[in-house]
Amino acid sequence: MTTHQRALNFGPRLVPAPTSRLRSVVLVKPARAIESIMPLVGEPGPIYERALEQHIVFRKMLEYFGVETIVLESHELDPYETAAGDTAVAFGDGAVLMRLTAMSRRGEVDRMESKFARLDIPVAGHIAAPGLLDGNDVVLAGNTAFIGVGARGNQLGRHGFARLAQSHGYRVAEVKVAPGVPALRSVATAVAKDTIVIGSDKADITAFAGFKTIVLERGEEYAAGVLCLDERHVLADIRYRTALSTMRRAGIAVESIDLYDFTKLGLTPSMLALVLRRE
Fold it and tell me: CB-hemisphere CA count at 13 Å for 158?
């Protein structure tokens, strides 16, 4: 279910193309509660102080490439709030607010909506009850909106977002994700208008028919959760050296930093930033 408001023909342009040059993001600092999250199988638990340091480096790297970073304090009891991309998805003329699967996280959307009002970010619609969808389960590529089908969200939420995406000129495709995958955006990302990087066996590759795919080997699937800085230019976690080489051989310019204390949780660069503006 959705509510929708008609887009105006004036006001700020947000994301005219999903892989055009990144200009502005919202980041949410990690809270100490991040240490309470169960890590991925085989990984040690995250350490708050290290996560905070890595988040600062993430911000500075984005700013180095000319990206405005709007940094919000986290709610101390919300360990996942640092996954800022869950709260909204920006289209050209406004942002669609999500309704998060975890009831404990739904206050994040209210806080983000208040921030949007202060930043003069128009709201193009929102997922309404009983629909559920998390923003990091949406990947925009070219004129297609891919929606992850897994443990999060429900059919009402996916259907509602699909209608909104279609009203913004996108065709919609659903993508089944493997059990245990945190979000579609952790294992699949658009790196160019016609190219998807995807983790092997973590998402249904057939859903991306018509796109070029860069498939990353098993064991490095979460390297696919890069943040696109511009066409064929991405920011990645340095830990996945084989995957980074694979992307570079495919003609992708890769910047890499240490985000290990987020990687332990399956939180990727693409999930940590709420994209507000591209050009």
Answer: 20
User: Distance between CA 54 and CA 9 in Å, rounded?
Assistant: 40
Domain membership of residue 253 (yes or no) is no
Instruction: Answer yes or no: is 48 within a domain.
Output: yes
What band does 12 get if pLDDT is binned at 50, 70 and 90?
low
User: What span, in angstroms and rounded, lies between the C-alpha atoms of 122 and 145?
Assistant: 20
Q: Is residue 119 part of a domain?
A: yes
Which structural domain, as residue segments, surrounds residue 24? 9-181+263-278
80's CB contacts (< 8 A; 6+ apart) are: 37, 86, 102, 105
Domain CATH number, residue 17 = 3.75.10.10
Query: Among 211, 208, 215, which Cα is nearest to 246's?
Result: 215
What integer pLDDT is reported at residue 235 of this predicted model? 98
Which tens digit of pLDDT belongs to each residue from 41-96?
889 999 999 999 999 999 999 999 999 999 999 987 889 999 999 999 999 999 99
Q: What is the DSSP string of 210-266?
A: TSEEEEEPTT-GGGG-PEEEETTEEEEETT-HHHHHHHHHTT-EEEEE--HHHHTTT
How many domains are contained in the chain?
1
Query: What is the distance in angstroms between the CA of the first residue and the CA of the last residue of the chain?
Result: 30
What average pLDDT does the segment 191-220 reach?
A: 96
Is 7 a residue whose pLDDT tops 60? no
What mean pLDDT comes out for the span 233-253? 97
**227 lies in a domain?**
no
Question: Which tens digit of pLDDT belongs to each residue from 160-196?
Answer: 999 999 999 999 999 999 999 999 999 999 999 999 9
